[in-house]
Amino acid sequence: MKTLLKNAREQKGLKTREVAQILGIDQALISKFESGTRKPTKEQISKLARLLEIDYETLMIAWLKEKILYEIGDDEFALKALMVAEEEIKYNRTISNLKISTSLEKLLQEIDVLKAKLDTYRQFDSYRITQALELEYTFESNRIEGNTMTLRETDMVINEGLTISGKSMREHLEAINHHEAIGFIKDLMQKNNSLNERDLLSIHNLILRGIIPEDAGRYRKVQVMIKGSSHMPPQPFMVAKEMEDYFIWYEINKNKLHPVILAAEMHERLVTIHPFIDGNGRTSRLVMNLILMQKGYLITNIKGDYETRMQYYQSLETAQTKNNKEDFILFIAQIEKQSLERYIDIIAQ
């Protein structure tokens, strides 16, 4: 920045004394700005840019760069800190422009009223009710992905250890694996640890265990396409970086956003990266529900019937291709509200 200021002043044919007089700044300060021994204030930068006809953005970037380097120097954590700062700046710029629609705001308020009501009924929680709802969740989450087992057949496989005639080994494993993955995220919920890469890979490993063992718990190494979607996931060499950014985003936002918005965002962001060969949808929904349960909410169980599945896919497509997440967040919020209403009706009887 010092060279920028001095060169611009000399090109204008001005002496430091003249610049100081015009701007009402001490001449010694102008000399120190040009030698780099003192830094101008933001207001002084604005004045200097106008007088010396320097592009304001160029001068501000040079000024901010020097401030950052002065503060962090060559500290061993400097680059990591800059990455986190970059994500937070992006978030703050986004959140300052984020307009939560009236309908979403109203829905979140209704959800929080139901959540407060649910909290008063917690002593009536029943293991059998929870078990039944988790069975439904496994059934519906697998049905979304094309599993043809009925709810009763899913129950027989998981709870009775039976084999269903006419159903593939993969369908049996999908039921067993998803049930175990629910148990795993419930353990994580009890520990209340912040979601990390190790836990995410463990969830995915459970989902694909015995189905595609070589890819279970591992990021993909090939390009993939999402059936029925125009969204193209990132190239495989970008996946690790995208996932690193995913967890940085989570750490920044986990205590800033409404839990339903946070959970929906984590679902959408993960399935948009599509980091795995298979099992992205189930893993994304489990991550979403882990976050909801950690915050005291209920599992959001997206149904696998045609109408609901199409609404789910279409709202995801809008988020991925039009950078508009409103429909998807509303969709998740509506299902969370339905889950709360249903559960309260059951345990209040």
From TrEMBL:
Question: What are the residue boundaries of the HTH cro/C1-type domain, all occurrences included?
Answer: 5-59
Can you give the residue ranges of the Fido domain? 195-334
Give the Gene Ontology MF terms in alphabetical order: ATP binding; DNA binding
Q: Quick one: which residues bind ATP?
A: 278-285, 312-313
Matching InterPro entries, A to Z? Cro/C1-type_HTH, Fido, Fido-like_dom_sf, Fido_containing, Lambda_DNA-bd_dom_sf
Extract the SMART domains matched here. HTH_XRE
Q: Which parts of the sequence are marked as the site Important for autoinhibition of adenylyltransferase activity?
A: 145
Cross-referenced Pfam families: Fic, HTH_3
Which ranges form a coiled coil? Answer: none
State what protein this is by name.
Helix-turn-helix domain-containing protein
Its taxonomic placement starts with: Bacteria, Pseudomonadati, Bacteroidota, Flavobacteriia, Flavobacteriales
